[in-house]
Amino acid sequence: MFTGIIVAVGHVSAREAAGEGARIRVDASEMDCADIGIGDSIAVAGCCLTVVEQKERVLAFDVSSETLRCTTGFEMGRAVNLEKALRFGDRLGGHLLSGHVDGVGVVAAFAPADATANGNWLLAIDAPPAIARYIAAKGSVAIDGVSLTTNTVEGTRFTVNLIPHTLAVTTLAQLGVGASVNLEVDLIARYVERLRQPLAEG
């Protein structure tokens, strides 16, 4: 589990084919890696990946073909948000995340919120229709692993407000119109939807 509070920004320093998937290496030099070992889970751009190699502060991950199919952001040189897995007793500063990306959204607009916004920017995302139904105004959503609160929702488009701190410590300031982002909807919304579905008789 994760919280969507980014601890560092890393960079994909290498990517090589591994069967139908890929092995990526992430330069995590800005993150304290002293307590990270083989087998640990790290959220990379919002996607939960397992550390398979570690050399100094370069972490290697195997990314399956299925993960590559339903996510974005693992290209060479790409900046990626990093978060260590939540431990019991840690503060829950964002919201509960599984690191299982629900779909890829597209940036529709990204601009200063208004003339007196003190550095705040408004980000509009077009979500895939299959997951847009789980996104509610004033609800929680993760964009590239960053826990955010939605401002407005209209059809499949939603907006979030980004404060200067978020822009400074995550990759979101690098986004532009047309960019692809990983989305994870609120866990509670998914379970509510499942409970509403009739149980199929076996």
Describe what you observe in this structure.
The chain is mainly beta and 202 residues long. The protein has 2 domains: 8-84, Elongation Factor Tu (Ef-tu), domain 3 (Beta Barrel); 103-194, Elongation Factor Tu (Ef-tu), domain 3, CATH 2.40.30.20. 13% of the residues lie in helices and 42% in strands. The chain contains 4 helices and 12 strands, in the order βββββαβββαβββαβα. A 6-stranded antiparallel beta barrel has the order 1-2-5-4-3-6. The longest helix is centred in the last third of the chain and has 10 residues, at 187-196.
Summarize the structure.
13% of the residues lie in helices and 42% in strands.
- Backbone structural class: mainly beta
Question: Helix and strand succession?
Answer: EEEEEHEEEHEEEHEH
Radius of gyration: 17 Å
Q: Counting H and I runs of at least 4 residues, what is the number of helices?
A: 4
* Average pLDDT over all residues: 93
CATH class of the largest domain: Mainly Beta
Please report the distance between the alpha carbons of the first and last residues.
32 Å
Task: Enumerate the spans where pLDDT stays under 50 for 5 or more consecutive residues.
Answer: none
Q: Using the 3D structure, state the CATH architecture of the largest domain.
A: Beta Barrel
Arrangement of strands in the largest sheet = 1-2-5-4-3-6
State the helicity in percent bands.
Answer: 10-25%
What's the CATH topology name of the largest domain?
Answer: Elongation Factor Tu (Ef-tu), domain 3
